[in-house]
Amino acid sequence: MVPGAGRWPTDPPRRRWHTTAVNLGVLLVLVLLGLPFGLLWSAVSPGVPVVQTENGAILAEPSPEGFIAADGWFTLLGFGLGVLVTIAVWVLLRRYRGPLGMLVVVLGMLGAALVAWQLGRHIGLAGYERMLDTAPAGTNFTKPPDLQAGQFYEALGFIPAIQDLLVPAFSAVVVYTLLAGWSRYPGLRPEDEPRPWTSDGAPVPVSSGSAVPPTPPAAPAPPGPDEAEPPRG
């Protein structure tokens, strides 16, 4: 019996370095997706109308919908981004599926959410702050969208604890777990599945066509009535 028969050889160091480089590249690309995410969020989210008074700016409406709309749009867009990105990574990077692949997607979505939030909230912020300082009383203008849920406290003293930032990562975890559960390959990657080995230790090549299992030999027919039965010991 050939040692290690039925298993792939251990990955060489070059392949491990290649896998690390690919995962780091994917992580960077996913984080950069926060740029279009932030631009889109800023474009579709309505601002909050304010009016300048002698004592500073106040809300022009008692319960403006802009606060809730900004959070809602960020949650909706973030959930959709997490779903689409996870499906794309699963399909395009099938050789790198597994726990590390899911971790890369989750970290990438967390980074993308942070980038989108910081980019989106700063679009128009300079003009808004200039209006706060120079606008005369009675002037109406708009506060740019920002996330409100949980922004008034911080985790560990410096990390903004905003639940909306976790939505893309949450959807990525859910979708990746479902795809892994539905996969028909135990190792998630078809090329890493066990293959038979030849007697000299080389893996049996896989044919491009559909493999047809050999037909088992038929059992011998019972002797006829005119045939003599073999002697029994």
From TrEMBL:
Q: Which region ranges are annotated with the description Disordered?
A: 189-233
Q: Where is the composition biased (Pro residues)?
A: 213-225
InterPro entries given for it? DUF2567 (IPR021213)
Q: Which UniProt keywords apply?
A: Membrane, Transmembrane, Transmembrane helix
Compositional bias per record (Low complexity), positions renumbered to this chain: 201-212
Which residues span the membrane?
21-44, 73-93, 100-120, 155-179
- Domain of life, per UniProt, equals Bacteria
Pfam families for the chain: DUF2567 (PF10821)
What is the protein name stated in its UniProt record? DUF2567 domain-containing protein
Tell me what organism the protein belongs to: Plantactinospora sonchi
